[in-house]
Amino acid sequence: MSFVRRYLVTLIGWTVVLMLAFTALAAGSPAGPAAALPASAGLALVLAAFPAGIVVSGEILPDGPPLRPAALRSFGLLLLGLGGTTLLLTGFLGPMAYARLAGDAADPVRALTLVELRSAIREAEAAARQVAGLDPTTIGNWLQVNTMTWEFFVRVSAGVLAGLFGLLGLASGFWARRLPGPEWRLTQHLTLGLVLTVATYLSNENGFEWIVLQAAGPVPFAGLFSLVVPSLLCVGVGWPTVLEVGAGGRRGDGIDAGP
After folding, report:
1. Whole-number Å distance between alpha carbons of 42 and 158
2. Is the pLDDT of residue 254 over 80?
């Protein structure tokens, strides 16, 4: 399928560009920019899924009949693979590389893999509950637990976000073809991409600063806030997209089972 190659080329290209940007931003980090590179690759994959979905939208969701279920299935498999790769980078390879490259400057929480992080959360939570029996209102009792839990769910969310960003890119490309000119299409893509990027960043940061740092009890949901805006957009944009694509298929002569 030609769109698979185009999708992967676009995805890799944008990922490289974004990783270079992240490396430049991490230049002043005590651990050095190289230490954050593997985990940054996972974040870059999430963001790159959006323009990659736009590029192949016309081949997967054509303007008219016939429908292309085989292409949709292949795209779904691509997104599953992308989510798994992102989770592997953010949850395992990234932390291991970070711990090795950062050395003594490594943040102890960021250096843990998902499996190690989950085990550390259980131990810290048991200790916090024991202390909370004496002083249940002390924020410090839960700060370590909530920080690690936030880190755990932020990493897990990255795998889901990759799929959501890819689907929104597909939908954005589909609806942009109905706009009158290329400048309006570009404006739509840039606006939606900016909204997704800013909303994801702010939801993670605000979830940590406003909830994790202030909570006097367990708040595992704080690390999942980044999923809210993309999920709502997927529902809001996805539903009319499905209806429009379905209506186009019914107007046609049949369904094309091939790519």
Report:
1. 7
2. no
